[in-house]
């Protein structure tokens, strides 16, 4: 697990290798990840959007921007958390992801850019 705290927002990530499959005559490596967003501050926040940089060992980077996470814009009260699972496909058995969430403090209307720590994606057979 990797963890990062930014402005009272704690982001924790765990990953797992899901398997390989062929799509469009090309092998893909599927990875899952589970993220917990914990509000350590004294104010209620809402997650508005996300920004991802998805990198693979073949020197390819995909940028993904979007509203919310898995179709939701969760409101997280002080001391509470929101956990969700998602995944990605890589063209190689090794890669990494990093990014940030844009949140708003509902008490002050201040915006928060909470860092998602860099985390590795690796198929067990590719790691020695």
TrEMBL record:
Gene Ontology biological-process entries: error-free translesion synthesis
PROSITE patterns on file: APAG
Any Pfam family the entry gives: DUF525
Top-rank taxon, per record: Bacteria
Gene3D superfamilies, sorted: ApaG domain
SUPFAM superfamilies documented for this protein: ApaG-like (SSF110069)
Annotated ranges, domain ApaG: 3-128
NCBIfam families reported in the protein's UniProt record: PRK05461.1
Name under which the protein is recorded: Co2+/Mg2+ efflux protein ApaG
Gene that specifies this protein: apaG
